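TEACHING EXERCISE
Course module: macromolecular assemblies
Task: Read the component lines below, then compare them to the predicted structure of the full complex.
Student: A.B.
Group: 4
Components provided:
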Amino acid sequence: MFRWIQQVFAVTVYSVRSVPQRFGSVAAAMFGVAGVVAVLVGVLSIAAGFRATMTAGSDEAAVIVVRSGATSELVSGLGRGDVNVVSETAGVLRDAEGELSSPELSLILNLPRRSTDNDSNVPMRGVEEEAFRVRDHLTIVQGRMFEWGRAEVIVGLGAADQFAGLDLGGTLEVAGQPWDVVGIFEADGGLEESEIWSDARLLQAVYRRGDSFQSVYAKLESPATFTSFRDELDGDPRVSVTVARRADFYAGQSTLVTGLVTGIGGLIAALMGLGAVFGALNTMYTSVSSRTREIATLRALGFGAGPVLLAVLAEAVLLAIVGGSAGAFVAWLAFDGYKAATMNLQSFSQVAFAFDVTPTLLVQGVMYATAIGFVGGFFPALRAARLPIATALRDV
Amino acid sequence: MRFLYLIWCNLKRKKIRTTLTLLSIVVAFLLYGYLAAIQQGLDMGVSVAGADRLVVRHKVSIIQTLPESYEARMERLEGVVDATPATYFGGVYQDPINFFAQTPVKPAEYLAMYPEFVVPPDQMRAWEETRTGAVVGRTIAERFEWSVGDRVPLQATIWPRQDGGRTWEFDIVGIYDSEDPAADLTQFFFRYDYFREVLPEGARGQVGWYVVRVSDPDRAVEVSNAIDAEFANSPAETRAETELAFVQGFAKQIGNIGAIMTAVLSAVFFTILLVAGNTMGQAVRERIQEIGVLKAIGFTHVQVLGMVLGESVLLGVIGGLAGLGIAVVAISGGDPTGGVFPIFFFPVRDIVIGLFLTVLLGLVAGMLPALQALRLSAVDALRRQ
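Instructor-supplied answer key:
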């Protein structure tokens, strides 16, 4: 057994040391595998980043209440009466200042994107004081908080980065009036960072909304109270609302974009993987056929067919892993943290997010490379192991 | 032509390598096909936007509604042939993942506005007779296996019924189709009068946007300005623009994600071609000696050049044709994202470009070794080991 392992090792080392002689074809195959992994990881990091933004900062006790059937806040509508019913429902967390239940207004502003000048649907949120207690992960990083009752806004980090006119100290047109940008806030990379926030009452007035809202964000006493909270509101004849955990509500809104990205990403990965397998096969067949005599000599010297097979396979897998790791590294360098904004088709508004090359994606990429190397090396290895020794030695 | 057999034999010499190279080319062109189709999907039908159609929406944002009285006011303006309302219904069929556009429209007016959508005359008559009738695109009908006579419930997300219910029921009375592959066949149209009637009183009389036909496409901008001026300083100011500008603006909201994906796909396409091209060149370089022999026995430079190029072009064209063929079949089977793109097809223009690319690939891959072979004298080639 030990002898056998020694043989595998000897042949593998010998093969790997001959790589520089076949540098061109080896490099082409490794380049192929690296490309596959880089693209796969890169594209999937878009979906990962988008999903991370949609679900950031929402713990299991965070809920959202919208009008019955509404799939996004924009299409919802709640009166002051509905809002009061929600905050009085059992299960909502209360502290010294009252219930952690925040009625909110959602609007869309048309603002040009910084990079292309194209008008984009930037979400604007009208809030009351409770909003900041429900979302304790929100912090002002530049400037200050807006003053209640004044035409001032604070802007999320992502929105400030992607859309024109959202600089600290700038002004923006809301319902025909200039409003001042007085602060930039951060929210753990969450969806709020794509938004512009201001005083709900003021927005109700300028948009002639009466005393109406679109959603209520609430914090429950514990994640476990969700079911009873939902059942109580569902059974309340005074209101007709849909209750959802915040994370679920946003996850439901991200299906189209993530489906788009992973659908295309999967297609690219599958086709590229196929291409890379062909490349690896080519390289390994060339590698085996250029060493026909050497392999036959080894066999004649007493090396077994098994070690030869394993050694060729090991070479292919090794090259693929090196290529794949390089590709994953390149993807991480190029894509991780890359800032972008896209329209979420389901909520009709822009979401600013950063590409996220997660460790899982890196591991998946390298595993994919290993699989490519294995398939690409297996058939050439089989051929090497089956080489008829006598004819091969006689071959020119 | 008489060298074709020789070229063929050369290709057959290393069967495995030839096959693998061929398969790589097939994959590359399959990818190319998807790239073209995804591009169409991301453009959201810019190519079919009518030059004589304007879209008029609320100035602040598309989610704000306009009064229905604007239709008559716009039709009085000079240069406007017709104006017809449309609204985003946003209903859910079974599951929110089944995303498609539903629009209440005035049947005859709306379809006159979009001559590319064809509804059989008897179905059109049935629609006029059925208040709850809906006409749907062929693609969406196939996707959900709907046929004429089916009753389809949609869950309202924006527009609850007068009675407080959320379920709107529609009877499918027709299926529209189009000769233009770029037309969006995923829409669901139903009658505006039915929509209006079922809504609660307070929600009636508001529409999402208007489609306006102008008499002269060259004056589209002028008419747009006239429309915006008509409603300036009113509670609902408008923003009128050509349908092309509107669709482009909407498509661009997808942002750099689309651009990144297409850039990546293009990079992949060219990488595969590069690798395949390299292998094809390699196959010729290995045979320098034989080329010397050919020259020694009297083959002219041009003949040798033609043979080497012929070999790589043949490989490129065979692989490319197979790849493009598979792409045409695969793409007509639907998009890889499960229905996110309303429009997904492989445009003829891109197929033609693809055909050129197959030849180009062969020429570029074979050119370098072919030139080497051309310059080589018979003696030098024979001396090479």
